[in-house]
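Re: the 410-residue chain
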Amino acid sequence: MGDYQVTASTFDALLKEDYIRQDIVDAINKATVFKSKLNRTETIDGRRAIYPVMTQVAQGNGSRAEGAPLPNFGGGVYQDAIVNTFSHYARFIVTGQAEVFSSRNAFVQFVERTLKDTKEGLTLNLARQSWSDGSGTIAMVNGAQVAGTSTIPVKNAYGVAWGSAAANTTFLVRPGMVVQFGSENNGGQGYTVSNITGTGFNIAPALQNGVADASRMTLVNSANQEVEGWLKMVATASFMTSVLGMSSAVYHAIDRAATPVWEGNVTDASQAALSLALVRAIKDKLFVRGETASLCITSPQIVRDYEALLQPNQRFVPATKLEGGATTIEHDGLMFTKDKDAPLQALNLVSPENISWAQRNDPEFIKQGDQILQKVSGYDMKEAVLRWYSNLDCAQPRSQAMLYNLNVAA
């Protein structure tokens, strides 16, 4: 049997197939349990979405005696929430040698394997971003490191002490990640991760310059360019500045320090063990603001500890299946499920109906003319780039709540 010769047009034709694109979209939508529960999507025409937020209710009302003058006119006060989308990319390369196959079936299998790698890398990245605060922090450097160091110890997944267990601070780190530490990025080329342990990993090349303790580890050139996820949408003004270490308390162009109605709900458990009383207190915090949560998405360890609190005579519903294979238990009107990427020591009360993905489009390949694969100058290879403009938007942060800094065994 002769060789099956592939051209750029052959590659393009396969990449344009609806099932290829839809498979990527479906994978991203189920990237994490948290992501799969967000069923609302806002499709926007430009780079951002703008909508009004009532920050003060109308005061043109009151009770009066017979014949008394009517209340003064009063209208509601609004501010614009501005949701900027961020640009997410995934690239893959096809070398000239990969353009000759024994059969068309072998060619199709090669493309599917390449796309599977691309898809899995993108979904892992977005799974982490869904929980993060937009800064891109994966972990923090543990102790000052000098130039020439090639083994990096880290702490504080997501940049918070309660984000991970002390013995597993690398749970968000993956082999092959290309990262930087603070502003140290190896001249823009980054450092490649390998040999991951529970609390550190190796990098190549070795550090070109020293980095300070608590420097933020991010993907190279991605700092502050990622999805504004759960930790930011649920935050209060003081939580953003004192816990997340942000320079301001602005969420989607509205300053929470001056607009408390735009704050979420957070409670520091101060390393107390999870209890039904603490759960009731955070639920009541929502209730007094006129809100209730329908879902708790949290780490496997928190779900484990919560299940241990339940007694046989308490009202709970047996575990049921969710889309994507996750399971949930229901107790006292609240469904509990777990997400492997959730911050370890936090219980999260989520109102999915008030969270949506603001996106310009579903993920798509960048085209030049009608071509997806583009020649890489100076090399016998072609590249394809998958692109997605999106961000998370919570139009009602007061309906979200988090009990954090719990004492949780790994």
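The first helix runs from residue 8 to 15.
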